Amino acid sequence: MALLTCTYYSESLLGMTKIHVYIPTPGGKEWALGTAKDHPFFAGKKFPVLYLLHGMGEDASTILRKTRIESYAKDAQIAVVMPEGENSFYTDPAYGRRYESYIAKELPLFIQDSFPVSDKREETYIGGFSMGGFGALRLGLKYAETFAKILAFSGPYDVTEFPLHVFEGEEGTRAMHWEALAGEDFSAIPGSDLDPYVHANALAYSERVRPEIFLSCGTEDPLYPAHVKTQEVLSSLGIAYTAQEAAGGHDYDYWDPALLSAVSWLTEVQ
């Protein structure tokens, strides 16, 4: 596998941003055995691609450091793109950097033009952890014509609970960056464009193509109720999904093995 780090100017973000990209390439074993030239990379293959989104307070390097995504992607022969998302929830705010437009529109075109990845919908996937899981589910449903498959791990999908997601800091307890989405008016979020369930509902009552969905969450995760509710919402709308859960919390001790299962699922259903 080749790991490439690229810094470039994003029109959507109005500034420089960084991406990490894994591309399947032959390794030392293939070169030693004389089989490297038989690798699909040298045959001009366009690899299926997974856009993998990090969580709040992290950056794309967190995924490199805390998961074995390189190994999983190598076995599955898929490319993986890990962009920066700050604490944006991968949305387009009224003011600021437009991460929704960047992830769902600009970045796939840049990646397709710059790396040996497929431009086919059926080989384009989106996934993420926590805040990234929220982004993956929301964007995957909203832009179903772009993403064929969604991998969503432990996201705060139930936006009616947004005001309850808090943390302790030097300034006391406060909401976690929801003000970047809707100011202090949390009641404006449910039922709005920011609500993943709104996009699930819109998809269910349309003739649009539907993405395949993989949901995963640890049973001790504070966001486990959102995982359960999301299954209930999707089931009520007749939207198919695959769900995984096991003992675990809101951390990479749970997410890394769950990621292996998810990448295997991508391969199995192709």
Describe this structure in words.
The protein has a single domain (48-268), classed as Alpha/Beta hydrolase fold, catalytic domain (Rossmann fold). The protein contains nine helices and ten strands. It has helices at residues 28-33, 60-66, 69-76, 99-114, 131-142, 179-182, 196-204, 224-236, 252-268, and strands at 2-10, 15-23, 49-53, 79-83, 124-129, 149-153, 166-169, 172-175, 212-218, 242-246. Strand 7 and strand 8 form a beta hairpin. Helix 5 runs parallel beside helix 7 (196-204). The mean pLDDT is 90.
Structure keywords:
Rossmann fold, alpha/beta, single chain, two-stranded antiparallel sheet, 22% strand, 34% helix, globular, 10 strands
DSSP E strands, number: 10
Q: From the helix content, strand content and strand pairing, which structural class follows? A: alpha/beta
How many domain regions? 1
Q: What is the CATH topology?
A: Rossmann fold
Total of helices: 9
- Gross morphology is globular
What's a quick, concise take on this entry?
The protein is α/β, with parallel strands linked by helices and 270 residues long. Helices cover 34% and strands 22% of the residues. It starts with a strand and ends with a helix.
Please specify the SSE layout and strand pairing.
Blueprint: E1 2-10, E2 15-23, H1 28-33, E3 49-53, H2 60-66, H3 69-76, E4 79-83, H4 99-114, E5 124-129, H5 131-142, E6 149-153, E7 166-169, E8 172-175, H6 179-182, H7 196-204, E9 212-218, H8 224-236, E10 242-246, H9 252-268
Parallel strand pairs: 3-4, 3-5, 5-6, 6-9, 9-10
Antiparallel strand pairs: 1-2, 2-4, 7-8
Helix pairs in contact: 3-9, 5-7
